[in-house]
Amino acid sequence: MNTLLNHLAPWPEYDFAEFGPVTIEPLGRIQQLTASFLGRNWVAIPHVTHHDEADVTDLEADRKRWNAANPGAKATLLAPVVKALAEALAAFPLFNSSLLADGKTIVRKSYTHIGVAVDTPQGLLVPVVRDCDMKSAAEIQAEIQAISTKARTKGLSMTEMAGGSMTVSSLGHIGGTGFTPIINAPEVAILGLTKLQPRPMPGADGGINWRLMLPLSLSYDHRVINGADAARFTQKVADGLAEFSYE
Ligand code: CAO
Question: Is Protein transport one of the keywords (predicted)?
Fold first, then answer.
């Protein structure tokens, strides 16, 4: 088939040693696999990334209280995000779908399984937490903790990483104000999180009301999802987080 890709210039090949000392090493096995999947997804899917923020001031205060009251356990922001995502998927079912390779057929899913990108020494792994709509935030938190530890220590089977509705990728513990996460095909969207930001908002008395905002970066497959729905979906996630309670 004659496609535009056939007309790309060949990959530049250099003898890098001509420019200075270098060392040459192969990518690890997981990095090689991830690279081929990410390369395919980036080239094959027309990505658009929509950015928004969720007001998590009350959620963060609630989370800190919960952690203080439960010293043996630890709640992070990720479980409430997964819960809010599950609710948004129920409200916008097209986001819980896959486009088949023929480019003409949509598979709509009646389950809500959410992948969580985990940074491991071997590379990026994405375990899937099943039936997030039926589990509490505490149950989801415990599963994320267990599966991310397994990913980092023992690795994961393909089965543990397959069958997601959508993926969440959090860089918030490191930093950033927004990024373009690459969709984890055959899913049609992925939610990226970056670092909490304090923001001055107008207060009711005319003064300044400081709020804690979580940046949300939603990449979506524009063949399946239009921009207006992406904006509504992200707003729904933000609303779910603003209303979340550990009670
Ligand atoms: N802003 C500020 N702080 C945040 C935050 C955010 N958006 N999200 C999490 N944090 C905080 C947590 O609350 C925790 O702080 P405390 O210890 O004070 O409570 C700290 O950062 C560490 O959190 P964590 O990483 O242990 O837990 P998590 O549930 O937030 O994330 C996991 C778990 C597995 C998703 C994460 O460790 C990870 O691997 N992230 C990397 C994903 C990645 O690489 N994505 C890129 C994909 S594209 O290449």
Answer: no
